[in-house]
Amino acid sequence: MSWRRFFHRKVADAELQNEIESFLVEETAENVARGMSPEEARRQAHIKLGSPQHVRESLWMQNSLPALENFNRETKYALRTLLRTPGFSLMAILVMALCIGAATSLFTVVRSVLLRPLPFRDPDQLVMLYEHFRSPSSNQHGFNYNPVAPADFYDWRAQTHGFEDMAALRYGRFNITGERGELPEVVMAGGGSWNLFPLLGVQPALGRTFVESEDRSDGTAVMLTWSVFQRRFAGDPSIVGRQIHLDGWPYTVVGVLPSWFTYPDAKIEVWVPYAAGFPPFVLKHHDFHFSFVVARMRPGVSLSNAISQVRALQYRTHMEYLHDPVAEDVATRSITDDLAKEVQKPLLILMAAAGCMLLIGCLNVANLLVARGAARQKEVAIRGALGAGRLTLIREQITESLLICIVGGAAGLSLSLAATHWLARAWKDLPSAQSIRSDGAVVAFACAMIFAATLFAGLLPAISSTSKAVFAILQSSSRNAGGSVSRTALRKTLLTAEIAATVVLLIASGLLLKSFVRLRTTELGCVTDNVLTLNYSLPANKYDKPEKANAFNEALLERLRAMPGVRGVALGSVLPGAGYGGDDVFTIPEHPPFPPGEELPNALQRRADPGYFSALQIPLLSGRYFTGHDRTDKANKVIISKELARRYFPGENPIGKHLRPPAYGKGDFEVVGVVGDTIFRVGQPISPTMYFPILSGSGGSGDVGQALAVRSVSDPMTMAIPVQKQIAALEPEMPVSSVLTLDRVVGESLGNAGFSATLVLAFAILSLLLACVGLYGVLSYLMTQRSTEIGIRIALGARREQVLRLMLVDGLRPALFGLAAGIAASVAAAQLIRHYADSMLYRTRALDPEIFAIVAATLLAVAALACVVPAWRASRLDPMQALRTE
Amino acid sequence: MSQKNQPDLDMLKGTLDMMILRTLIGGDAHGHTIAKVIERTSEDVLEVEQGSLYPALHRLEDRGWVSSYWGLSENNRKAKFYRLSAVGRKQLVRETSRWRQMTRAIGLVMGEEMAQNGGGQ
Q1: Which of the four pLDDT bands, split at 50, 70 and 90, describes residue A470?
Q2: Residue A371 confidence class, pLDDT cut points 50, 70, 90
Q3: What local confidence, expressed as pLDDT, does residue B114 receive?
Q4: From B56, which residue of chain A is nearest by alpha-carbon distance?
Q5: Do A712 and A532 form a contact (C-beta atoms < 8 A)?
Q6: CB-based contact A27 B30, cutoff 8 Å
Q7: This prediction's pTM
Q8: Partner A, chain B 22-41, Cβ-Cβ below 8 Å
Q9: Three-state secondary structure call for residue A586
């Protein structure tokens, strides 16, 4: 009701004016009738009416909403003051836009990746189950979540009843070959137990999901993801029910997954049943850890209750297979955490950095506002003396910061729309990256930020600039008001806080950057210059005998080594730096048997051709390389890495000893050589490694195909096409994948370490800039304030250097205090990073003295630079000029 | 002039509304007439402040107790007429009975002194 009135005030006012006019006319007419002269009649009518303005104002007041009215007026007033100083306003708005934009972008990503539930049925009821080894050595790089062995999964599902259901999934890779002349290609595949999709609550877009009878070793059903369905099959729905060829075997397409389904990895393009393609003995193993188990909680059964059954079962299994690497425990985490495990920590650190920058931005704007307040002391004092309430004055100043924050926030929000898009693309392997978008919650977050920033930036300056001390200015004739001392103190305090926060950001970014540089410069343990790498996987149906695979591999090696410009060719299963690639436990027959239950020796397992080590320049420490004779039935040889020898053959010569990996089931492998260590992934510690001859023809556990490395004389990428042509000449149906250089492989495995470090550094530099501007502003202000004093000092004979020193010390004091406080806070922050995100500091100490020293020096240098200009100006002050101005 | 009447205004606020409604029982009227009628009927004891009459009229209209229209006055001039609505009529009844109760109660309390004062005059 009153809203309607409020917005119809203008109409009501116009009508009232007409009414008043008609009153005057009536009254005049009446007076004339009484016998007055027209002038007198009109005069009397006016006297009777009183002030028409008063009547109008009464109605206007009656129709208005005081709060809205005030707000309206204050907004107009604040707008005018802001427009009068466009430089300040632009600066403040820009600062706010950057800070709110950055915080909002990070929030958008964090919300989509860490907070938004997955698009499954009751996602909060889904948990991931892992095997967990309790030994300290297994947990030295963080709590271990070990993938689950198939037999364990089957046992858990059949023998425990605490969960509604459990499903397993695994990763795989297939060569898709064309039926109608399409190019062959390698696709990443998921293997899901038949109940996976129903358990997640995923309905296929076309066709159906797997049925129980298809989830077997000889299962040949396949589901397409939306991306491959559109890309390779042109979205033709008739593909359902037809056959496609994976690794040369026919599979029947039973369904197509909806486009939003990108779990657990957007790179997966086809799904096969979990058991499909595995020989039955693999599925009976309790120590082939390659599956991920997702379980749906049963309503009314607590997680701890449900999991305790599984733990008890797993412990029984462990006791049963004491000589095998079977975990004794089970660990669980929510499906969202599980998906975000890689990015959670960097994201939270970035979010914290953005929050820190927002804080600095607010402090900066607060500082600028205090300076403005100083310039308007007289105005505030006069208005206060004339009766403006303190609350009104405060509200007015807050309105100003509100305007700054709203405009800045709006700009920041649009900035963040673009930035979020960029962030989602630039961040490699960000889970649910396609679902990152700005929505109501993000806008609400931005609004909350705006109001928090408004209060934070506006309240303190407003309160200080309307304090009682301000009124003293009217009592003194001098312009140097008493209030200015406390105000300068306030500015210095704000500045100290700003510098402290900047130091924290700088140190955090320094630590991350150092860690990144350490990662970047990691020695792989082999040559990485001019090495072309690619992967291929021989179609199993055609190369069903070891001899056939050996023939292909040897023919290819021979052709490649004969190519001009090739300095060496290595063929193995997994190249250095290219990833984990599987490990196996083993025993050493020459050593006394391990007591049951103790963790068995364990090493990464690789395959290598005779020329592998010399081509990659991995040094031979003792013994020999493989030869062409170490093949098929004579392939029971193994080459071990230095780390393996150090750890499991301490103080003895391993050559001639044997390794007995139970997973191979072929007895003992004789150690023929010891080679230098290589790193399987940048950022990971050196692991013991054992190399088996690739010419054995069989792949051990988890055949991951062949990895080829070609070392060339010049740019290796120019070799890519000729090498692929040689492969195609031997086997035209076989696709190759991951055509990269070894440098790139290393770069890929750096992940986002560089990205997040750079982003935090950008935030830190921006903050440093803000702090610098703040320092400069405070000191310039101080100089203006003290110009009389300085003038008198100079007039009395103070030397220029003394004045310069005085001003410099005055300006550097908050910088020093801020630095001290910031370093103290950084120590705490570094401990936090150490504690929660140790993996982000690679070979970098949390309290790295180098970083702390560099940051302190940088900050002091920048602060000195910011102080020197105003201090210099103060020392050049003409005393006569200064005194006259006053 | 408003200064003098200031203390009375608040007290009059409720009663002014009531008196306006009462005046309109006699038929539609514009602001000038309403003021005149109140003044005459009160034997010129009550002087209607224009500064409160018009806001009051707008307030009553806003509450739906009166409606308004532009018409021609007795002197053939354009004027805004107010008409009592059904709701307004009910409101008037309520206010009147409340006013009677109030004056009677105040009369009972003040009775003797007023009589004495009255006697003195």
Answers
A1: low
A2: confident
A3: 52
A4: A59
A5: yes
A6: no
A7: 0.74
A8: 30-33
A9: coil
Is it the case that residue A699 has pLDDT exceeding 70?
no
Q: Is the pLDDT of residue B115 over 60?
A: no
Task: Give the start-to-end residue ranges of the domains of chain A.
Answer: 2-64, 69-121+344-475, 147-326, 477-523+748-886, 538-733
The reported pLDDT for the residue numbered A149 is 93
What does the alpha-carbon distance between residue A611 and residue A248 come to, in Å, rounded to a whole number? 30
Quick check: B77 and A5 CB within 8 A? Answer: no
- The answer to whether A58 contacts B52, with C-beta atoms less than 8 Å apart, is yes
Residues of B in contact with A48 (CB under 8 A): 50
DSSP secondary structure of A843-867? S--TT-HHHHHHHHHHHHHHHHHHH
- Tell me: pLDDT of B8 over 50: no
- Regarding predicted confidence, which is higher, B49 or A190? A190
User: What mean pLDDT is predicted for residues A116-121?
Assistant: 83
Please state, in angstroms and rounded to a whole number, the distance separating the CA atoms of residues A100 and A112: 18
Q: Which of A509, A516, A515, A364 lies closest to A829, judged by CA?
A: A509
CB-CB neighbors (< 8 A) of B54 in chain A: 16, 19-20, 55, 58-59
Substitution target in B62, B66, B69, B72 with the highest count of A β-carbons within 10 Å is: B62
* A chain contacts of residue B80, beta-carbon cutoff 8 Å: 15, 18-19, 22
DSSP A182: P
Q: Which of A6, A24, A26 to mutate to test the interface with B (most CBs of B within 10 A)?
A: A26
The pLDDT tens digits of the residues spanning A57-109 come to: 877 777 777 777 778 888 888 888 888 888 888 888 998 999 999 999 989 88
ipTM over 0.90: no
Contact list in B for residue A18 (CB cut-off 8 A) is: 78, 80
A391 vs chain B: nearest CA distance in angstroms?
27
| Nearest CB partner across the interface for A55, out of B54, B73, B79 | B54
Looking at the complex, report in whole angstroms how far the Cα of residue A3 sits from the nearest Cα belonging to chain B. Answer: 12
Please name the residues between 53 and 92 in chain A that touch chain B, using a CB distance below 8 Å.
54-55, 58-59, 62-63
Average the pLDDT over A264-285 and give the result. Answer: 88
Res. B10: pLDDT tops 70: no
In single-letter form, the type of residue at position A340 comes to A
Helix (H), strand (E) at residue A250: strand A249-256
Going from N- to C-terminal start, the domains of chain B cover 2-112
For the domain with range B2-112, which CATH number is right: 3.10.180.10, 1.10.10.10, 1.10.10.60, 2.40.160.20? 1.10.10.10
A50/B50 touch (CB, cutoff 8 Å), yes or no: yes
Most trustworthy range by pLDDT among A227-241, A831-845, A872-886, B41-55: A227-241
Measured between alpha carbons, how far is residue A240 from residues A212, A244, A256 in Å? 19, 10, 8
Task: Name the 3-class secondary structure at B116.
Answer: helix
- Return phi, psi of residue A62, to 5°: -65, -35
CB contact under 8 A, B51 and A55: yes
- Total count of residues recorded for chain A: 886
Does the pLDDT of residue A227 top 50, yes or no? Answer: yes
pLDDT digits (tens, 9 = 90+) for A660-695: 887 766 678 999 999 999 988 887 888 899 999 988
Chain B positions touching A16 (Cβ under 8 A) are 54, 58
Is B50 close to A20, i.e. CB distance below 8 A? yes
**What b/e sequence results for A359-389 when a residue is b if at least 16 CB atoms lie within 10 Å of its CB, and e otherwise?**
bbbbbbbbbbbbbbbbeebeebbebbeeeee
B89 at interface of A, judged by CB pairs closer than 8 A: no
Instruction: Note the pLDDT tens digit of each residue in A582-621.
Output: 888 888 988 888 777 677 888 998 989 999 999 999 999 9
Shortest CA gap B60–chain A (Å)? 12
* A639 neighbors A675 (Cβ within 8 angstroms): yes
Closest partner residue to A62 (CB to CB) among B32, B50, B55 is: B55
